[in-house]
Design brief:
Length: 645
């Protein structure tokens, strides 16, 4: 076990934020911590890392216990970075002790040739110990580890001599995460790690964390990320923490079942309590039934009361409909040049953009950051011009547009005024009803658009879209600023909508759930993939695997040709013949060693399967380590044998 939490409480100004929290983290757990904003997620992380104290019960209960030799790493924005260091210097800091040992080894290598006798023996012994420690800690792979993590985190094109001070805020956050990954703490705690990451980096991080040797606790709103990585979900709700086994999708099913069961149990107990109280009230004054009434009262007093279920929060209602059915071919984009800026600052992003959209399709446009996905949405609507090519919408098209930054809203209007400005024929009652459906109620409808939250502005845009009744929805990052409940309502609305959708989003869960086609935009390239986001990834992987197989085959063929040419040109001298004889002798010796190793591996595998070994943890661990060592040695011998052959 890595960590245990028992009877943990946290109060602010006399009000409980967390109540009776109990949880454990085991080796190799992948835990997603979720809950509404302000529920106490960040506070719990700070308590676990010792940055904040917790409260105990009156009888002294309450503890957070971290097992011995467990290191905890906590990612916070820009944490642990020295702005005046270079990227390379900062990434070497997690290996400071090993690099110090490397310097000592180099020092010994210079001293040993200069001494003899006992002094040489002493230095040689100490040098061997240092080498053994350095190798056991994987010191020879320090540069490989650094390059792997930096490339994966999107720093492949950044020079290692780049000063950290010159990086952007998002780059510093990614670099801080890279450094934390290189430190390899036994418990890795990440707070919203998917921010500032593009698809490629996200997928690399998912694969890296899956293979991470340690436990991971993550706070994230990225449901696709939670699905790919987590084997447990911790949910904070009603000030308490509940543990669910499985990924985010499994959590949703279990949560629904638990909630339904809780409501049934609560309602059944309330009926039982009402019956008992009614019986007691009617019979406690009668002499003939007073004893039975007292018995019922004792039964009621001893009853363990089930807490009332969490107050039901009405979700928003989003229903997207249209009146006019368009033709089958909705949009054709032909040889369009996509450019941004003007004059000398004008930059061409895509020279020839071609794609089409048919009625009823749900098309998601994806691609690297800065490729122009948002600009494509604006260009096809005529918001930004294109100098060449053609954008052709067919007849009877009515577009409803969700813009990422909601700049189409007038920030000086109140929420009511903004809707009334767009739909002047609607009565105040009708406007209030529409706003109420997206949970914009009470005093919020009289607030200026500029002061309401990002999530509330998004809901106002959805209200506008519902009233527009467009048969084509153009959506630019529609789930930004939304809580999980509203995201799920929006997803269901988009699933039920049978019109056409053209979508740009980094929300992979949304892309996976609603997309019927993925259009991938690259530098002067557009590729279309039928199906959802998972299908797109599978097809991309299949293409990449095929290309790698072709390259490998070409490489092997070239090597074969080179070897044949070399053999033809070789002139076998006496010395070469002697070397061949020596090589053949080495091959025979290797074959004997390989045979011995294979027998040893077979013996170890048989021993490991014995019950007396399996029940002895230390002996089992020793046998497994020996087996792994033998297999590694065998691989090395086989490689050498193949080279010599």
């Amino acid at each position: 076990m890595v960590l245990s939490i028992e009877n943990l409480y946290k109060y602010f100004n006399g009000e409980a934020l967390l109540k009776d929290v109990n949880a454990t983290i085991e080796d190799n757990d992948r835990i997603g911590l979720i809950g509404r904003n302000g529920c106490g997620k960040s506070t719990l992380l700070k308590i676990i890392t010792g940055m904040e104290n917790f409260d105990k019960t009156n009888d002294g209960k309450g503890s957070v216990n971290i097992s011995n030799n467990i290191t905890v790493g906590f990612l916070q924005q820009n944490s642990g970075l020295d702005n005046m260091c270079t990227i390379g210097e900062e990434m070497k800091k997690p290996f400071a002790d090993l690099l110090e040992i490397l310097e000592k080894m180099k020092d010994y290598e210079q001293k040993m040739p200069l001494v003899k006798g006992e002094e040489f023996d002493k230095l040689s012994s100490e040098y061997a110990e240092l080498c053994s420690y350095y190798e056991a800690r994987d010191g020879y792979n320090i540069n490989v580890k650094i390059n792997t993590v930096l490339n994966g985190m999107g720093f492949g094109d950044k020079g290692r001599d780049r000063i950290i001070h010159s990086l952007s805020g998002g780059e510093k956050t990614r670099l801080a995460m890279a450094k934390l990954l290189l430190e390899e703490p036994k418990l890795l705690i990440l707070d919203e790690p998917t921010n500032h990451l593009d698809f490629e980096t996200l997928m690399w991080l998912e694969d890296y964390l899956k293979a991470y040797k340690g436990a991971i606790l993550i706070v994230s709103h990225d449901r696709y990320f939670l699905n790919k990585l987590c084997n447990k979900i911790w949910e904070i709700s009603s000030k308490k923490l509940t543990t669910y086994r499985g990924d985010y999708s499994a959590f949703l099913v279990q949560k629904e079942m638990n909630t339904a069961r809780h409501i049934k149990e609560y309602e059944a107990q309330q009926k039982e309590i009402a019956k008992l109280e009614d019986y007691i009230a009617r019979n406690k004054v009668r002499a003939s039934t007073a004893v039975q009434a007292k018995s019922r009262q004792n039964q009621l007093d001893k009853m363990e009361i089930i807490e009332k279920p969490e107050t039901y929060e009405k979700p928003p209602k989003i229903k997207l409909e249209y009146d006019i059915v368009p033709p089958k071919e909705v949009l054709n984009v032909t040889d369009c040049e996509l450019a941004v800026g003007e004059g000398e600052k004008r930059k061409v992003l895509i020279e020839n953009l071609n794609f089409n959209v048919r009625r009823g399709e749900k098309v998601a446009i994806v691609g690297p950051n800065g490729i122009g996905k948002t600009s494509i949405l604006k260009m096809i609507q005529g918001i930004i011009p294109h100098e060449k090519g053609r954008v052709n919408w067919t007849n009877n098209i009515k577009i409803a547009y969700f813009e990422q930054e909601n700049t189409t809203l007038n920030i000086h209007n109140t929420v009511m005024e903004e809707l009334h400005r767009r739909f002047p024929r609607m009565s105040e009652l009708e406007i209030r009803k529409t706003l109420g459906s997206v949970l914009l109620t009470g005093e919020n409808v009289f607030k200026p658009v500029g002061v309401i939250s990002g999530g509330e502005r998004a809901k106002l845009c959805f209200a506008v879209m519902m009233l527009q009744r467009g048969n084509v929805l153009v959506l630019d990052e529609p789930t930004n600023h939304l809580d999980l409940a509203t995201k799920e309502v929006l997803e269901e609305a988009l699933l039920e909508y049978d019109g056409t959708i053209i979508l740009v989003s980094h929300d992979r869960y949304l892309l996976n759930k609603i997309s019927s086609r993925i259009v991938e935009v690259g530098v002067n390239s557009v590729n279309s993939y039928d199906g959802n986001f998972d299908n797109y990834l599978d097809k991309k992987k299949a293409v990449a695997d095929a290309e790698n197989a072709i390259k490998q085959a070409e490489k092997e063929e070239q090597e074969k040709q080179n070897k044949a040419e070399t053999k033809q040109k070789q002139y076998r001298t006496k010395e070469q013949r002697a070397q061949d004889a020596k090589r053949k002798l080495m091959v025979k010796e290797l074959e004997k060693e390989i045979e011995q190793l294979e027998q040893e591996i077979l013996n170890l595998e048989e021993e490991i399967s014995l019950p007396e070994i399996a029940s002895d943890y230390e002996l089992m661990n020793e046998k497994c380590l020996k087996l792994e060592e033998c297999k590694n040695t065998l691989n090395e011998k086989m490689d050498l044998w193949a080279e010599l052959g």
